[in-house]
Structures are given as C-alpha cells and as structure tokens.
C-alpha cells in the first residue's frame, strides 16, 4: 500500500535526525540529461537536417550540477564543466537556441523553514526569486534498487505543470497544462531531506530523479568533508515571487515571438517548461 509523506513528517524526520546525529553535511554531484523535441514548421528543412539539429542539442543539453547541503540548508548550482552558455545547434541556415534556465542560476533551500531563494537571469536581467518551497505529496512504493553504494527506495508524485509553446509564425504564446509523473529514488542511508532542483521532502537524499524530459542522477558524493561545507545563498537581483517571475518570463517569450516573426532561415517551434 502506498504511503503519503507530507511536510510535517519530513520536518519531524529532520528534527529527530538533527538531535541524534548532529549536523550531517556533504557535496553531491549530479548528471542532468534534458530531452527536447523540436517541432518545426518549415517544410524546406530535410529530415536529415532535423535529425542533425536534434542530435546537436541532445549533446549540449547534458549538464552537471552540484548540491551542497547540511541538515537544514542546500544549494543547487550548475558546474560549467560540460557545456557553457545556452544550448544551440545549426543545420544549414537553420539556427536553434534554447534557454534551459540553468545558466548563472543559484537555488537555495531551507527545508526546516520551508523557504527557497533563487537567482535566475532573464534577457540579461538578474532576478532574486523568494518563495515558499513546493509541497510534494510523495507516495512511497516500497520498491528498491542499488545506486552506487547506496540502497535506494522509490517514491512518485503527480505534478501539474504548464508547457509554453511559441513560434516565429504564431500570433500569441500558447500555454498547455499537463500532468507529469515525477519519480524519485532516495536513500535513507543519507538522512537529509534534500534533492536536486526544487525537489525535497523525502526521508533521505534523492539520488535519482526522472520528470518528463529530465533525468537527474547522482554520480559522486562526499559526506562530512574535513572542510566545512559552505552552502551558497543568492544575494543580488530584483526580488520577485515565483508567480511574478513566471509572468515576466511569459512576456519576454511573447516579445521574442513578435521579434522573430516572418524572418528567413526557417520557422521553429521551441517548447519550454516541465
């Protein structure tokens, strides 16, 4: 029978482990693979050119991130070791550029207070997003598997999300809602309630996460290093909440659609969200 894990359970878990084990800390490295399917409305683009664009983007959308954490706090930031800058690809006169949102971004979480702060750059402007952490109604399935040296347990969550679609030919930005299953594999052997991106709230570190077009896997972990782990926290940027930032992002996408409408070189639809 599946069990729902709620915020107060995670908070109680964190408190009890803090009292009995002290301040566990560490640094975990994650490999992130993002799958983006390009939807193109240019009939002149050959199947070979489309496949070339898709393969270029697949390689460039492989990212590496670092999660620094102690019992209550965590920071999530990209390591610029695989690909720097936004993903892009070229085939003939066709050029594609996808902004994944990870460039220069820093996410800070405090799971005891249930708050988050995040730096995100949009069209050259830096924002500081301050909001409550999302509450995930995780369901524990009882399934287990081995990831590295750790025995992990499976949890799932059904998430309502939006997908924004724009094109050089469209007159407006369209938004489609969809339900996505988030799958997490966590290990109670590392008793902190942290995970990649904004995910958290399970009785153990999330070692692997699969959500729609993203696969995130922990490739290396260092626990209780000799030097104190310095959890990073964003300080600069225009302060907004998540709803306000999403509204600004939608406006900028619409401006981009209007700017490139009717230009030569092929018309491309880019899907963002998830």
From TrEMBL:
InterPro entries: GLPGLI. Pfam families: Porph_ging. It comes from the Bacteria. This is GLPGLI family protein. It comes from Negadavirga shengliensis.
């Amino acid at each position: 029978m599946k069990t729902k894990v709620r915020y107060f359970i995670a908070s109680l878990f964190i408190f009890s482990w803090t009292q009995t084990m002290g301040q566990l800390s560490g640094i975990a490295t994650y490999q992130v693979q993002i799958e983006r399917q390009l939807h193109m409305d240019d009939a002149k683009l050959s199947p070979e050119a489309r496949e070339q664009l898709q393969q270029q983007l697949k390689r460039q959308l492989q990212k590496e991130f670092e999660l620094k954490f102690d019992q209550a706090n965590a920071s999530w930031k990209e390591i610029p070791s695989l690909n720097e800058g936004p993903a892009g690809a070229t085939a003939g006169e066709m050029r594609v550029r996808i902004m994944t949102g990870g460039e220069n971004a820093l996410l800070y979480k405090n799971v005891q207070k249930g708050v988050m702060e995040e730096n995100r750059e949009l069209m050259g402007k830096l924002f500081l997003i301050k909001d409550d952490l999302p509450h995930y109604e995780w369901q524990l399935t009882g399934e287990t598997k081995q990831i590295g040296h750790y025995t992990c347990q499976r949890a799932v969550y059904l998430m309502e999300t939006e997908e924004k679609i724009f094109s050089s030919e469209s007159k407006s930005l369209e938004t489609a809602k969809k339900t996505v299953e988030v799958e997490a594999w966590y290990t109670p052997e590392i008793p902190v309630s942290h995970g990649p991106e904004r995910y958290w709230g399970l009785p153990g570190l999330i070692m692997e996460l699969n959500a729609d077009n993203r696969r995130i896997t922990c490739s290396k972990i260092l626990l209780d290093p000799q030097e104190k782990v310095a959890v990073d926290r964003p300080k600069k940027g225009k302060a907004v909440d998540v709803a306000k930032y999403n509204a600004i992002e939608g406006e900028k996408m619409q401006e981009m659609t209007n700017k490139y409408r009717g230009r030569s070189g092929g018309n491309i639809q880019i899907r963002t969200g998830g």
